[in-house]
Request: fold
Amino acid sequence: MIDNAKWAKYETLRPTEIESICKKNPIAYLPWGALEYHGSHNPIGLDGIKAYGLCCDLAKQNGGIVLPTVFQAANLISSYQGVDFKKHSIEFSEKLIKLTAEEYIEQLAKQDFKIIVLLSGHAGEPHLQILRDIADYYNKKKTATYVYALAEFDIIPDHLLVANHSAIGETSLQLYYQSDFVDLDSLPKDRDISLEIDAVYGDDPRPATKELGAEIAETFVKNASKEISELKKRYL
Ligand SMILES: [Zn+2]
Reply:
């Protein structure tokens, strides 16, 4: 770690380095992903890659420590009704999602993190609602730690991004954070894109760009940072 770093990655730190960052910014970022089929054009880990990238950008701005991504999600496209994408997803039970989230939150709070930012890159339901409910339940106990649970589209205007699966929004973010994992040429050029064939829910991903991904990410960081600044006043 660089001396006096404002932020870092949890798994890379020695104890004194964790304490040095937490002295000023006791904020933990917990990126939550999925291993889920995202069509022919995107990687299986898109949700987690996206959440991790956004968490690192947030930590650079606000300080704190980014945990490794939790690649554990329920309610994946592999079990959606009306589509047939059984392969290339690893789906966990809702029970396990709840337990994992509870154990992360309890232990991070015990280790004196005052703000926990839980960013879910996966928007399947009730997976996302389970995470939101655990945060609400924890926050109602009014401890010294606050859990800010969100999905990126919660705080991004609709003209830039809405909840989607491997559509233009997610694909642009993937291009921004790791463009070599994307293959837009694998999509057909002679027909419309559909959920049933291409596993895309939302607007056509073919015009996706790294530049749009950058704009979405910057907007997210700006809006989430406002909330984190308010939380810092209350909890730090
Ligand atoms: Zn996704």
In short: The CA atoms of residues 106 and 229 lie 23 Å apart. The beta strands are 7-9, 27-33, 64-66, 70-71, 115-120, 146-151.
